[in-house]
Structure formats: structure tokens, C-alpha cells
Amino acid sequence: MATPLSAKTLLQQHLDQVGVARPGDVGWIHGANSRARLDTALVDPGVHWVEGDISLGENGQVIMAHPPATTSDLPFTDWLHATVAAGKGAKLDFKSPAVVEQCLAEAKRHAQGKIPLIVNADLLMGPGGTPAIFEPATFLAQHKKYLPQAILSPGWRVGESGSSYSREMLTEMWDLLRPVRGPVTLCFHAWFLLTSWPDVKWLLDQTPYTLTVWGQIGDPELLGWLRKYTNPDRCFYDVQDMAGNQIHVMKV
Questions:
Q1: Where residue 250 falls among pLDDT bands split at 50, 70, 90?
Q2: What number of CA atoms fall less than 13 Å from residue 212's CA on the CB side?
Q3: Which residue, 198, 203, 206, 202, is CA-closest to 186?
Q4: Domains of the chain
């Protein structure tokens, strides 16, 4: 019986599939929720991973849309198949619990082994946030059933009134993820990461997890801080400037 691959080995296999050596070298497109935005991303050699928001549409169709939007010109099925055909990585950012199982099953059938996959949802309440709409144990069980080798990317639901991720929030997430054997990347809003850094670094020191930094950055000091204090060997950077353009943090 083959020995299961370690989380570190699985992560490197995902990176190798898109031709990068470390998480910090990944080029992203964020919110590829329309045909036009997806088409642009799929022909861009600087985009290694496509992030899209998966929602339940008005007619019960699974669509690519970020709430509160309930319509889109891009069904999930079309998004997934086009991304697979282009050989890009796919980040499935779930916005509705009702669509998770069918989308993971479809990704298992049509994408697993062909492209690297990240499975993402906000599972816990974070700084300034409201209670999460996902039941964490159910989401983790669905991930394990369909795509256990995909990178699991849990996050916290945050709000503008927040200030930082507390040690309690981080410990709650760590306790939740202890049974997970595959690669994990924890999602942190860029501003809240800065204010929480001692506690986040503590968690990194205890685990093999990577970070995914997200959000818009308008302050060059924050960008400089990310370059100085975060490790591109353990950090994905899905951040944008205030106009929505992707920032390649490690390219000075």
C-alpha cells in the first residue's frame, strides 16, 4: 500500500503544475466571475491561478458571482471547464453552502489530476465579521470526501469594523483543522494580518500551513511590510491596488 503523500509534498506538486517554485510566485486573477474577465485571465501568461466566487443564482443555477449579486453570464460548469482547458489552477471560493457538494463532485470528475485546485470558504467569524454561513464540520467532510488532496483554504468572515485576528480566533481554526492531512492555506485580510502578526507567526511556527493574503492595498507601507515580514515560501499573495489591479508582491 502506497504511503500517503505529505501536505508539503502535495503543495509542491500543485505549484509544479503551474510552473512556480513557491507560493509567493503565483500570479492570480481575483474574482473571475464574468466571461470577459475569465477569458482575459486564461490567455494571460502571468496568471497561474484563477479565483472565482461560486454562488446560487436566482433560478437555482450555480453561477460565478460575489454576493449580493445573484446573476451572472458565467455558470460554474463553464468556468471550471474553461479553466481546466487552459491549464490554469482553480480556486473555488464558495459563497453558498447549498452549492458545495455538487461543485466539489464536478471538480473531482473533470478537474482533479488535471489542474491544481484550492477549495475555499469562510468557516469562522473573524474581526468585525458576522457569523459564518457555513457549518465547518460539514464543509470539511465534503472536502475530505471529494477533493482531499486539493489545497484547503479556510478563512474568517471579516468586516470593516475589525482590528485584528485574536489568538482565540487562530486557536479555534487550528483546533478545527487538526484532522486535516492535506495542504492548508489560511486566508488573512492584508490589513488585519499586519495588526495580528505576532499571533499569526505563532500559529505558523506550530503548523505546516501557508498563508493566503487577500484584499486591496492602497498604502505602500503595507506593501513594504508584506515584503519584509512575510515569507514567499509560505505565503500566497492575492492582493490588488485600489483600482482592482493585481499586485505581484515579490516583484519590486
A1: confident
A2: 26
A3: 203
A4: 8-245 (3.20.20.190)
Q: Determine the Cα angle at 29 with ends 153 and 229, to 5°.
A: 60
Q: What is the mean pLDDT of the segment spanning 36-61?
A: 96
d(CA 247, CA 241): 6
State how far the Cα of 249 lies from the Cα of 215, in Å rounded to an integer. Answer: 12
79 to 110, 113, 162, 217: CA distances (angstroms): 12, 17, 33, 27
Cell numbers found for residue 112:
482533479
Strand partners, 121: 154
Q: Cβ distance 237 to 27 under 8 Å?
A: no
Q: Please state the φ and ψ torsions of residue 92, each to the nearest 5 degrees.
A: -90, 100
75/48 Cα distance (integer angstroms): 21
- Position 3 scores a pLDDT of 53
What three-state secondary structure class fits 201?
helix
Q: What is the pLDDT of residue 1?
A: 46
For residues 201 and 221, give the distance between their C-alpha atoms in angstroms, rounded to a whole number. 20
Cα separation, 51 vs 117, in Å, equals 10
Beta carbons within 8 Å of 34's beta carbon, 6+ residues apart: 64, 72, 73, 74
